[in-house]
Design brief:
The chain is an alpha/beta fold. About 45% of the residues lie in helices and about 15% in strands. It has 16 helices and nine strands. Strands 5-4-3-6-7-9-8 form a seven-stranded mixed β-sheet, with helices on both faces. The protein has a two-stranded antiparallel sheet with strand order 1-2. α14 links the parallel β6 and β7. α10 packs parallel to α13. It is globular, with a radius of gyration of 23 Å.
């Protein structure tokens, strides 16, 4: 039996990776110039785009051709069209518009953090100043709160629906590191007897308050400014939300915080933890790459496996935990119950 010859060595992956910054900067430029919205309006040639986007025709031609190559646009007879994904996520008038998330994802602070990755690897933690994103009142968290709602609204609505389908009493919700507050807000919209206490830095809670007011929650939405590690969390919470929070910290810190959290909860309370959860091999699924973000931005944070999360909760005195994939997301929720 003849064996197929082994593929010859190729430098293609190296060059694709080395030039990956072109992809990043191209989507940034396209959003800045409002290219996708312009095409949606019917400006589908380079000359029309140049007029609408206030840019050179030569520059627009090179940019949109590259976007076609990346799969964001299609091209036929020198006219351009949106793909289904671009129409949903990159047109400003779309409810699911994601272009604004680049204000946080590509913020100068985070971008520079990745430029300093070599030093972060040497240290085993962030090379950013003042402990990176866990610094007290890290200034980019306000940018995060304003920019990331379109990315988080889908998971927030799904979590609310999941809670409706699983039943149980929810009257007191504690939203830890609430940010934009959208998780607690969406749940409160589905549970009219529920009140939310949102914990975060004062400047960030201003954004959460705006979103709660827009949802007409009124006095059902309260804010608790300060570090979740230090403030009095109260008691009797039926539901606690830990959405993209504890990954910033080492396991001992997480466990200490979970012990504090457990003391604030009702006997039958639940915790919902939203996280990027890698498999035990730490290289799958695709969300396993989140560990590198934690290396760049925190001193000791990580992307923890479900076994690690389960162990943390059990060591803090909680009962069983369940893992659920969030549809159309790279994240999972972990539903943890108080010990019986």
């Amino acid at each position: 039996m003849t064996q197929s010859p082994s593929p010859s060595p190729s430098p293609i992956l190296f060059f694709e990776t080395a030039f990956a910054i072109q992809r990043t900067c191209s989507i940034r430029a396209a959003v800045d110039l409002d290219v996708f919205t312009a095409i949606n309006e019917g400006h589908n040639t380079t000359s029309a785009l140049a007029d609408r986007c206030h840019a050179s025709e030569r520059g627009l031609r090179m940019l949109v051709d590259y976007l076609v190559m990346l799969g964001f646009l299609t091209k036929s007879d020198n006219t351009y069209a949106l793909t289904q994904d671009s129409a949903v996520f990159l047109v400003k008038t779309s409810p699911a518009y994601l272009g604004g998330t680049l204000d946080f994802l590509l913020s100068p602070t985070l971008f520079q953090g990745f430029c300093d990755l070599t030093e972060a690897v040497r240290k085993g933690g962030t090379a950013m100043p003042e402990q990176g994103t866990i610094a007290e009142e890290f200034h980019e968290w306000v940018t995060f709160a304003r920019a990331m709602v379109p990315m988080m609204i889908g998971p927030a609505k799904w979590i609310a629906e999941h809670l409706v389908s699983t039943g149980g009493t929810i009257r007191k919700i504690l939203d830890v590191a609430a940010g934009h507050g959208i998780f607690g807000i969406e749940i409160a919209k589905r549970f009219p007897d529920a009140a939310v206490t949102a914990v975060d830095w004062p400047s960030v809670l201003t954004v959460a308050r705006e979103n709660a007011d827009a949802a007409s929650l009124g006095d059902r939405f309260k804010t608790l400014p300060g570090s979740a590690f230090d403030v009095d969390l109260g008691e009797g919470h039926d539901l606690v939300l830990l959405t993209n929070f504890l990954h910033h910290f080492a396991i001992p810190e997480c466990e200490n915080f979970l012990r504090k959290l457990r003391a604030s909860m009702a006997p039958n309370g639940r915790v919902i933890t939203l996280e990027f959860v890698p498999n035990d091999d730490r290289i799958s699924p695709a969300s396993a790459d989140f560990a590198l973000i934690m290396l760049v931005t925190t001193p000791e944070g990580d992307a923890y496996t479900f076994k690690e999360w389960d162990s943390m909760f059990q060591n803090a005195g909680f009962g069983r935990s369940e893992l659920h994939a969030v549809p159309n997301s790279k994240e999972h929720i972990i539903v943890t119950h108080q010990a019986s």
